[in-house]
TrEMBL record:
InterPro entries (alphabetical): ATPase_NBD, Gcp-like_dom, KAE1/TsaD, Peptidase_M22_CS, TsaD
One matching Pfam family: TsaD
Chief place where the protein resides: cytoplasm
SUPFAM superfamilies per the UniProt record, alphabetical: Actin-like ATPase domain (SSF53067)
Catalyzed chemical reaction(s): L-threonylcarbamoyladenylate + adenosine(37) in tRNA = N(6)-L-threonylcarbamoyladenosine(37) in tRNA + AMP + H(+)
Protein name: tRNA N6-adenosine threonylcarbamoyltransferase
Domain Gcp-like: 23-313
Protein family membership: Belongs to the KAE1 / TsaD family.
GO terms, molecular function: tRNA N(6)-L-threonylcarbamoyladenine synthase activity
Annotated EC: 2.3.1.234
Phylogenetic classification of the source organism: Bacteria, Bacillati, Actinomycetota, Actinomycetes, Propionibacteriales
UniProt source species: Kribbella deserti
Amino acid sequence: PLILGIETSCDETGVGIVRGQTLLADAVASSVEEHARFGGVVPEVASRAHLEAMVPTIRRACETAGVKPSDLDAIAVTSGPGLAGALLVGVAAAKGLALSLDKPLYGVNHLAAHVAVDTLEHGDIPKGCVAMLVSGGHSSLLAVEDITVGVEPMGATIDDAAGEAFDKVARVLGLPFPGGPYVDKAAKEGDRLYVRFPRGLTSTKDLERHRFDFSFSGLKTSVARWVEARRRDGEDVPVHHVAAAFQEAVCDVLTRKAIDACKDRGYEHLLIGGGVAANSRLRAMAVERCTEAGIAVRVPRPGLCTDNGAMVAALGSELVRAGVAPSPLGLPADSSMPITEVLNK
Ligand code: ATP
Ligand code: MG
Ligand code: FE
């Protein structure tokens, strides 16, 4: 099937077009620069930017894919979770398209889409795998039997998301927003063993109750304290080393727990998705440790890890291929859509 997917949950206006599991177009317009001076995404600014970018981005995707809207078999859109006003713009646009073209509409879960996007690179998602979702707002370990049916949460962060920790530490280090990519870059020239920052929820006692959960807030505070102490003493802060040591702590915990989750379920496949999956150290460490553990690891290329429309189209395509019934045209934007709900019915 030929599917167009629309993503507007945060600050990226994404429109992707896929045929089956083949990516034909992935047009993204970002308002990230408009938010940078505020140090975080401003919802009203994001909504307005989506409104302005929506039609041109749909047009650009259709041109790139070489398809006419009338060729499409279905429209998919992020129904949630995300910023309410931002989601609304995408949902309204998708409804308009579906109604005018008389095509089915699929209101999908943004988080499940971060997982489903991997089909565009590596084909069918194995029946029985752990998906680690690490993004700006979420950090979860999910057991996946069939992504078109649902996911089962095994654990999640009890405070900050991994991406949030990257962004906050970046701010402490004086790096631009959003910080993840800048920390990644700075860390390349740093010494990962320069300081040993704490690994949240990995003590024997914590593991009893939080075996598959994460905590990054203590790590962030620990980095901030370390940096403050240096500044108080009038010493230079070795940004590269701190970035590398912080990144090492995050990736160490993520990969350890993800592999443990696979072992717990007897799954031989780990799939990693979400913006933080673009992190070069996480990718390298996951490959290294999974290989050692006899687990096959799949991570989409970095450009597909951060928010985009292709991921929404990819999930829509999986749902259509599985014969799942579409959403009603009265589909709401659900800013707190639970991770267990793949499709808004
Ligand atoms: P969610 O998917 O939970 O709704 P979101 O859509 O805002 O949140 P994504 O776009 O999936 O999040 O991911 C953005 C996050 O990924 C940001 O926190 C960003 O700093 C982080 N990120 C992006 N690239 C990298 C990288 N190379 N290393 C670490 N973090 C990164
Ligand atoms: Mg973004
Ligand atoms: Fe996201």
